[in-house]
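Sequence, structure tokens passed on for absentees:
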Amino acid sequence: MNSPDRGRAAAALALLASLAGCVNNPFRTAAPSTTPLNLEPPPGVAAPAHTLPQASLAAPPPSYADVDGRQTAAALARSREESQVMQDEISALREQLASTSSQLAQARVAGMPATTAAEPQTAGVKASSAATMKSALAGLALPGLSPRFDGSVVRIDIPADQLFDEGTANIRPAGTATLTQISGELDRVYPGHFIGIEGHVDTEPLPNSAWSSPHQLTAARAAAVFDFLTTRTSMHERQLFLVAHGSNHPLVSNATAAGRARNRRIELVVYPEHSTAAD
């Protein structure tokens, strides 16, 4: 077979192969694949909006305005109920107060004659006690001291320099003699009366660092006098009491040395009332 015949034969074979659907035909178009496409995006990539499920529009989302309105209405209703309860309680209290005031007024009216009669009698007793205290003052024999009548009490000022060593609460021997003499006179003129022991100092800095305040020093001095009177004299502890004034109640100005010396003192204050110790 010559060359032109071989070429025609090859072309005819190729045409037959293509028409028969030969799988090895390079010119055959591949059949479309039936595998479903995967539309899920890879990790980290958002899905397209049209591929997302659409929310149902049948039930609208809740309104926050409606929720707040319901809560406000409920709170207002509770507030009104509480306010009504408070009003009821206030009304009840007012009624009770009015009733109590009426009863008190009636009691005052009923007791007025007895009270009116008793008041002049009480005032007369007080005036009599004050007059008795004042008249008995002249009977005190206390050389070097000046007892004085003050309202309804008798005050005896004792200079601290006569009783204590400077800046201390230690009673000097001369101080013990002074306290013994005063105790005897008070037992004679004002037997069984209440007596206050009041400590005073001036405004100068304390010379002894053992006392951190003037009140501590005056309290210690008043206690020392109390101990002496209750252990070395006939006075009873139930008729005595202590007061520490510090520098709060000066008799005179602290501007001079004489004034400061006078303000450093122990005051024995005799009251009109009697102690049960006298019985």
